[in-house]
Amino acid sequence: MADAASRGTQAGGGARTVVQLAALVVGLVFLLVGVLGFIPGVTTDYGGLALLGPESNAMLFGIFQVSVLHNAVHLLFGLAGAAMARTVSVARIYLVGGGVIYLLLWLYGFLVPQDSPANFVPLNIADNWLHLGLAVGMIGLGFLPGRGVVAPK
Fold it and tell me: Is 129 in contact with 144 (CB distance < 8 Å)?
């Protein structure tokens, strides 16, 4: 008989598995980054924050180019992670699917010139390398064990 984790439901007793906890933590980090992208000081050249496109001069931590759209995407990814951490199977979908999305975003960032209107997110070199790291990390986390309880909810 399959246990709750392998059926894609919550681990027994209201506790989370490793993969669920990973999805939750990744989601919370995305939420934090999304909020920080709207805070002057944490985001340098905040006055240059544009809705979208390469004309946005705002830099999260002075490194990563952000826009309102970019920050909103982080917030949405964060909400998705928090919501999708409820079951093992959905947590895996979030982590692996999100990793694939970030892998595609990394590829897009290297193919599209930074000053092009097609760079609507916007992305710079630091963003591109971060997105590759996120892709590898999220996909890897998606293959963590779905069995075994790590913490009560």
Answer: no
